[in-house]
Amino acid sequence: MRLILFASFFAAALAKPLAGPLEADVHLTFPLTKQKMLGIYVDARLYEYDPWLADAPATLVDQVEFEGLDLSTKAHSLLDVHFSAKRKTRMNYYVSIR
After folding, report:
1. pLDDT tens across 57-76, in order?
2. CA 48 to CA 25: how far, in whole Å?
3. φ, ψ for residue 73, nearest 5 deg
4. What share of the chain is helix, strand, coil (3-state, %, to 5)?
5. Residue-wise pLDDT tens digits, 2-16
6. What is the pTM of this model?
């Protein structure tokens, strides 16, 4: 009986949630600049990868682009980015912004 309880507890700890929606909000803060910068381009991407596969490349699942941003010289410039995708079991996710 103890073995069954231990096995069920251990299996529950390893189980990840099934596929479902994945929502992420990223808040970018651009510091003050010495001169006003016009027409800035920002490309934000959400990638997924399988941590069990060492050499497998990451897959792009969502991308947000902003063009024509103006960075201020008087205050920090703020930008909010929202990502959404369908979560897959066993996958990990990361954000890349350039």
Report:
1. 999 999 999 888 887 778 78
2. 16
3. -100, -5
4. 15, 55, 30
5. 555 444 444 444 455
6. 0.70
76 dihedral zone (left: phi>0; alpha: psi -120 to 50; beta): beta
Distance from C-alpha of 25 to C-alpha of 80, rounded to nearest angstrom: 7
Point out which residues pair with 28 in neighbouring strands.
79
Amino acid at 50: D
Rg (C-alpha) for the chain, rounded Å, is 20
Are residues 43 and 95 in contact, defined by beta-carbon separation less than 8 angstroms? Answer: no
Pair 4, 42: CB distance under 8 Å: no
